[in-house]
Specification:
384 residues; alpha/beta; Rossmann fold; 2 domains; 5-stranded parallel sheet
């Protein structure tokens, strides 16, 4: 019966993506006419973060597929360096519809004081210079700073883990602002926690996260607490530092939380935050495995490859959402109000399992767990 529930759950995870794929082609996705002048595009991020880099690349790929920019071959960049990507785009993209402004890149560098300065300068430019026609707001900080009535420039919010709880949008159906659209998959994190509990059956779940509005949003704490009430497990929090300029402090705070949580919980949900990265993950995996604690990566397959036990990851990575975002950028350029656009993106998901980690923590691989896994890693790999 438990295996049956697991299989039905996994089928439900993928239903939305199948239904979405069968939708008729929307002509508003593609260029309807050539504007007199290309739309000038700007970019704002709270700071460097791997997801922001990834989302920018897949959005650009989607724009090329739909004909908004000419086909291009992106060079290799240092992972996470969105500034380098943006500079290359500003110099190399060919398009009659879009221009990536070299001077349109804004970065708060995870510094609250700098954030206020950048926000003020950008809002002043949007209102007075009026030389930017479209803003890409990457992440929660940027979404919070631009999803408001302090300007009217069309704004696309990307890679905000939970824009609803962070106050970026008013509801799943309505951003609340005529010029704002946010891409959001509200089902992924609840599915992750439900699957983790179904397969592991933990009574206590350790969750390291930054105890701020943004930090709770990144981790999906509203969703985790709701799942805890419904499924009957206890959430054991440990507070980290995430959105700060001193990266090493953020990283050490997560390591310290793992050292605190691992001896006292049945499982750890590894949430998205600044201190969880390629530098810290090997140490975090080591701590959890030494204590025999199953871990679940909120971020997906790339982290399971490095040693976390499980994840429910997007089957085809971020590219389908990149196409979704690019299509909505196209609709905006073709005259559709950002507020009227469908914000919810539903993608197919796959269960990823690290067999070496299962061995190290002494986890019995019963039929449920093996049947649930769509992809397995047999070793704990090192960061590249």
């Amino acid at each position: 019966m438990k295996l049956y529930r697991t299989i039905i759950f996994l089928l439900l995870c993928c239903t939305g993506a199948v239904a979405q794929a069968k939708q008729p082609v929307d002509i508003n996705l593609k260029p309807a006419a050539v504007p007199e002048q290309p739309w000038q595009v700007g970019f704002y991020q709270g700071g460097d973060y791997q997801d922001y880099y990834d989302y920018l690349l897949v959005t650009v790929e989607g724009l090329a597929e739909l004909g908004w920019i000419e086909p291009l071959s992106l060079p290799d960049f240092v992972d996470g360096d969105t500034a380098a990507v943006w500079q290359w785009l500003s110099e190399n993209v060919e398009s009659r519809h879009l221009s990536f402004r070299k001077d349109g890149f804004y970065d708060a560098q995870w510094d609250q004081t700098r954030r206020l300065e950048v926000r003020g300068a950008l809002l002043s430019r949007l209102n007075h210079a009026q030389d930017l026609d479209l803003m890409l707001a990457m992440g929660t900080w940027a979404g919070q700073d631009l999803a408001n009535n302090l300007h009217r420039v069309p704004t696309v919010v990307l890679s905000a883990s939970d824009p609803l709880s962070a106050g970026v949008i008013e509801s799943l159906q309505d951003s609340g602002y005529e010029h704002v659209f946010a891409s959001y998959d509200p089902g992924l994190y609840p599915q992750q926690v439900q699957l983790f509990h179904t397969l592991i059956g933990f009574k206590t779940l350790g969750v390291p996260y930054e105890d701020t509005v943004s930090g709770r949003s990144y981790a999906g704490m509203d969703m985790i607490e709701k799942a805890a009430r419904e499924l009957g497990f206890e959430v054991v929090p440990c507070y980290t530092q995430s959105d700060i300029a001193e990266q090493r402090i953020a990283e050490q705070s997560v390591i310290s939380c793992f050292e605190e949580l691992a001896p006292q919980v049945d499982a750890i949900y590894v949430t998205t935050q600044g201190g969880v990265n390629y530098r810290t993950t090997p140490r975090l995996v080591e701590i959890a495995n030494q204590h025999g604690v199953p871990t679940f990566s909120q971020n997906g397959e790339s982290e399971v490859r490095l040693g976390y036990l499980l994840s429910l990851a997007r089957t085809h990575g971020l590219l389908p959402e990149g196409r979704f975002i690019a299509g909505n950028i196209g609709r905006i350029i073709n005259g559709v109000s950002p507020r009227t656009l469908e914000q919810v993106f539903t993608g197919a998901s796959s269960v990823v399992l690290n067999m070496k980690t299962a061995e190290e923590i002494g986890l019995y691989l019963d039929a449920d767990l093996l049947a649930a896994a769509d992809k397995m890693y047999w070793q704990i790999e090192s960061p590249e």
